[in-house]
Amino acid sequence: MEEGSGSVNHYYGGTSSSPITNIAQDHLLTILLLLPIDAILSLSMTCKRFKDIITSSDTLWKSLSSRDFGSTCVDALLYKYMHQISWMRLYKKTYQLDSVCCHRLFDTHGGDLDLPSARASHSLNFVSNCLVMFGGGCEGGRHRDDTWVAYIGNDFEKTLKWKTVNSGIPSGRFGHTCVEMSDFLVLFGGINDNGNRQNDTWVGQVTHNEKNGITFSWKMLDVGAIAPPSRGAHAASSIDDKRIVVHGGIGLHGLRFGDTWLLEVSENLCFGTWHEIVSHPSPPPRSGHTLTCIGRSKTILFGGRGLGYEILDDVWLLDTCQSYLKWTQIVYDLRNIPDGVSLPRVGHSATMVLGGRLLIYGGEDSSRHRKDDFWILDISPIQSITMHSTTLSSKRVSTKMWKRWRSNGYEPKRRSFHRACTDPSGRYLYVFGGMVDGFLQPAEPSGLRFDGELFLVELVL
């Protein structure tokens, strides 16, 4: 990213010219949109016509933003910035991102505040312009069975008001997964107070009603006789509007899984079908890791706790195109990781943010030291990988895959097993709860301390 940032500034000074007179401008724009950004910037130095188009066409830069950042992100940025900044400048600012600013969020709606209680290993999602939170573990080894919704809409910096909209369905649990699938949520698995693992699948939906305001409903998804073994502390990610992938977790007797399952749902989300993906090689068994869709049917797995309770820092790519389903390990170089920084972690969050980046926050290391650091995993070389490559697993994809981002503003507590999600623009990351460091209390013989704070992480443009 650092090298790319310099390139953006350098290329805008090109002066050489080589007239191109026989190609219509709309055709040139179509060609440019097929090229990576560095190639486009290089062309601005080759001739005056390319330079004029690249430096003056707002249509080009809006299309590049949509291509590289996603159409949903562009719609959100259009709402907030279109009358303040050009698309070229906005693209450059996004390209050069290197820091975040944290803000503490308060609910100041007076009276008796209705707020979610402290918890960890819950779920937190952004769907239908709302934050939705379900379940989690809390003090005394108990689980939660409550569902909370906070409407946000397009005002991502406003004060939030939580509302309890359901209780008891699904049954209380922690260590489950809940992922967005279009305008729905799909919840799978988890662990209850008695240590029982679940393998049920639920669909949740937000409803906006003029009379009753925001409501939320859960329904169990009919998946037939085949389902993954019961588990908790697994990882899951949606791939598209009809598929999610689940990997790993802890089953009966504390056994850690290394299996991968794909759920395909029907058009009306009334039933689904589970398929196990068998691939060699595949990630070793683990729990407390993350799965994140990076687009184009590709999903990234990172970290977790292995069979021997070791904390992992490996990166794996799962490609779920129709023709093949295959895991490939992404081997990277640690030479750019600063001395004294521990990259392996469990109980972290990994979220796609503005600019098509994977932002990893928090977690804990092998000594159970909790973290408050922000890391960017550069997925640009990963996205271009074809799964037909026979040499990928034996070569280092990039020596600069990892970059630590600076953080300023509010300083939240170090935490693990929190949950995080972004708004549609990918610029605002919401973080709630988790395990935090604290003094031992008589009511907490294990030294576990649960957090009930919601804070906002803003990518600084």
TrEMBL record:
SUPFAM superfamilies: F-box domain, Kelch motif. Keywords: Kelch repeat. The keyword Transcription does not apply. It comes from the Eukaryota. Pfam families: F-box, Kelch_KLHDC2_KLHL20_DRC7. Residues 17-64 form the F-box domain. The keyword Oxidoreductase does not apply. PROSITE patterns: FBOX. This is F-box domain-containing protein. The lineage of its organism: Eukaryota, Viridiplantae, Streptophyta, Embryophyta, Tracheophyta.
